[in-house]
Amino acid sequence: MKMHLRKLASSCLTRGATKTMACQHVSACPTLRSSWRVALDVACRVSQPWKGSRLSYSGFAPMEPGHQDRGKDDSTILAEQTLHKPVMLKEVLQCLDIQPGQVFLDMTFGGGGHTKAILRASPEVTVVALDRDPTAFSLAQQLAKEHSGRVHPLLGRFSELGALLSRLRLQPGSVDAVLLDAGCSSMQMDCPERGFSLSKDGPLDMRMDADRYPDMPCAADVVNALDQQALASILTAYGEERHARKLASAMVEARSVYPITRTQQLASVVAGSFAASALYARKDRHQRPSHVATKTFQALRMFVNDELNELHAGLCTAQTMLKPGGRLCVLTFHSLEDRLVKRFLHGEDVGAPPRRSLRQRVQQWEEEEEEEKDGEKDSGHWVDLQRGVLMPQAEDILENPRGRSAKLRAAFKQ
Ligand SMILES: C[S@@+](CC[C@H](N)C(=O)[O-])C[C@H]1O[C@@H](n2cnc3c(N)ncnc32)[C@H](O)[C@@H]1O
Question: How far is ligand 1, taken at its centre, from the CA of residue 325, in Å?
Answer without folding.
Answer: 25
